[in-house]
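hey can u check if this looks right to u? its 173 residues, i copy pasted from the old doc so theres a chance i mangled smth
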Amino acid sequence: MTNKILITYSTRTGSTKGVSEAIAKILSDSGENVDVISMQDVKDITSYKAVVAGSAIQAGRWLPEAMEFVTTHKNILNQKPFAIFLVCMTLAMPKGDKYRSTVSGWLGPVRNLVTPVSEGIFAGTLDIKKIPSFSDRLKFRISVMLGVWRVGDHRDWKAVESWTRNLKAILDR
């Protein structure tokens, strides 16, 4: 086993990758050795001392490839420190904090497979031109016009930093 931490992610528009890179930088700046790899590119996790996995939320769920990653590696993940996070636009809605409990519940399928040592829940970004589906772009445009969403980067970097600093202490146990 190496002394490295794997930070792996699944993203649709890049928000989750950005959060993963921020987590990696914070851990690296505090002396940890980290690899940041897309879940689709991870082949083996046995050599890592800990794993941090994050996914965007789509329709109230982690992305399919994120669930596949956890399902594939659940036995190993249950034997080492494993932390999870999600990135979700619901938290960027007006009064989005009142949905925090609901959004946290969307991690239930992950919790059913593994027991995470920590969970991070973060708002994402809304860049309509990056949304792959025409119908989804249209829905978001209408929602923006109605005031449900605001276009832009809603990630709270201080919250990411705070969670990561707490996470470092947990992963070092």
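The mean pLDDT is 92.
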